Amino acid sequence: TPESLQSRFGAIISEVNELIRRMAPEEFVDEWSVDPRDGSVAFGSGYENWAISVPYMQRTGVKFPDIIEYVSTGRQKEIAQKAKINDVIFDMVVRHLPSPAIAQKYRIPNIWRGDPASPAGMAMAATAADGPTTFMVTDITMDPNAGEIATGRLFSGRLTKGMELTVAGTKIKNRVQHVSLYMGPERLMVEEATAGNIAAVIGLS
């Protein structure tokens, strides 16, 4: 029944919030706790490509009992047209994930061991596009046509085609051949990427 499902979901959400309470920095416990009413919780199926949240239900008129009816009668493809997973997840990201300009202020001291008062440290904490370029590579893939593609977070500065970058720990300079931003799974070539973006670069080795 809708009531029993909501009770089960409520218990799971309480467990998640208890983990957040125990593990999150004290100043972020309230902010990071999740609540279906504010849209920080969604229910759905990644396999069937549908999702629902309270704000989405309020906007569209799709109700929780409707979802149960669709699922119980094997009509999940119809739900996917009424409650598209990408719309719900995108709404959650926009509403609840902090922007780089906010998050880097408290994340940089935890992920970077350099001097926070240095030009690079201050630029990263401020997500400064006019600061020194600091690009943390998190993934390298091979493209049959482009070769090595380095993907990572641009914490400060800019990435532009033709600029020279030095890989940390080496003195070897690499020239950036192409800069891209991601649009879903696709890479979109751009003239420039600025601080705060996830970018892909060809030319690093």
UniProtKB/TrEMBL annotation:
GO terms for molecular function: GTP binding; GTPase activity; translation elongation factor activity. InterPro entries: EFTu-like_2, Transl_B-barrel_sf. The keyword Kinase does not apply. Pfam families: GTP_EFTU_D2. Transmembrane segments: none annotated. One of its GO terms (cellular component) is ribonucleoprotein complex. This is Translation elongation factor aEF-2. Keywords: Elongation factor, Protein biosynthesis. Residues 147-204 form the Translation elongation factor EFTu-like domain.
